[in-house]
Fold these 2 entries.
Entry 1:
Amino acid sequence: MSFPPPVNRMEQRSTSGDLLSKDSNTSTWETTITAPNGSINTNSSYCHITFQTTIYLSFVFILVGIAGNATVMWLLGFRMRRNAFSVYILNLAVADFLFLSFQFVYCLYLVIYIFYYINDTTYVSFYFLLFSFVVTRFTYFSGMNILSAISVERCLSVLWPIWYHCQRPRHTSAVTCALIWALSLLLSLLEGVACGLLFNSIDNFWCQTSNYLTDSWLIALFVVLSVSSLTLLVKIFCGSQRIPVTRLFVIIVLTVLFFLIFGLPFGFSFLLDKLLRSFPFLKTCDVFVIVLLSCVNSCANPIIYFLVGSISHRRFQRKSLKLFLQRALQDTPEEEEDRERDS
């Protein structure tokens, strides 16, 4: 899903409800809000204000997020030794960086397309939107899968610590991330409009099957994230054998929480895609807000890392970003860190 075409030029489109005449089976999010009978279902002024507000806010969060995730990628990739969880954090930063980078290009395309009335060809627009469709879902699936893997690994390390530290293969994180990237690419290619091009029809049996599999996978990941996070919280705050709170635990909980609040609506919009095709009056400009929330989610992760790493005994300390990130990924309580430094 990407930003739909702007409202102030929708009237120039076909009244068939399609963004482009290339394919009538284009995804809902890539259609206009013009109903099949040619009437506008959403107030134009509302859409125009919503678009302008959200796209400029998106630019701010995108630029901050790109800088933050690039810093995390540089530090974890070239300046720090990696452990099991830092490999996941590195790959999550790559996914967020790619997601935000492409959203920046697409927002810039929209601004030029709207405010400067640049005319483009139908085929250029169609294939650009198709590329947007695939890349956006690819990076979103990758981030959600990586975050789920982080939560599951953390649960395993807490529930069965001896088995986890003794039986876990050394390169589990790297292999898991490689499989996640491959799976995410496959899901993004075999879902929606991209599948329709591969099989010449979006109503093809294989496309319908892949759509259901993708939807089921998203729901399963949501369940995994919710259950694993709840398990960690229960293990810390309830029961006779409570585990100590570490910075790594705080990072995982906050990252999952931000995703459930800001990132999950983007994924649920995929599930609503079929419903919106059946009920055109539901096609509103609220999709702009959903994309803005997803940008906030990708922007928040590096801020969480550095913020948690900068706090010591509830005080902020002025040190290098590298040290902040190292401390943020440590899996030892703060009291033990202080004793180690004193010794």
Entry 2:
Amino acid sequence: MSTAQLNNEWRTIIIEQPLFDASESIYAIIEPELWPEWHTELSSHVDELETFELFKATQFNAIKNGPVVVNVATSQTLFEACVDKMSSAHCGALFYTENTTSSSELMYSLRNALIVKKGNGEVFLRYYDPRGLLPLVASMSDTERRDYFTPVTKITWFNKAWLTVSISNPIAPPFSDYQWVMTEHHFASMQSISTQW
């Protein structure tokens, strides 16, 4: 575990380990390049693995072996296998939603979040990378977190320790086309947080 301390202004907490909760929908975003055997290892825990390609139907669709979203709420052993792997490799993060949120609503939002505005252009944002999640969420206001990650209610990831951030209840309608604007202030804040953690 890191000797670095979380700044209270980051509104992120350290937890011992993520716990399985059947009352929530839990999805793991996994980078196959960092966990090549993910499908074989996770398939052994369930009859049928529910997966979604994050880049499908986006401008990144042609990228081979892109991130996958796996519903890990179907089995505690499946969830624990992801937690174990994420503890030893920076291969993904856990995204929680309410049980009433459909997978199609979540996937629409996750795909929409891949592109953010910066200056006069747009940039690709790997928001699911556990090495960059703390600077990202800590640089955002509560409102920005809510609007950018809707319908996600919590994100948990491992980077030196298990970290989790709660996201306030969404007010944006389902299938919103919200696009976060990354300002120079956000960027400077992210760089500062990266050096502190």
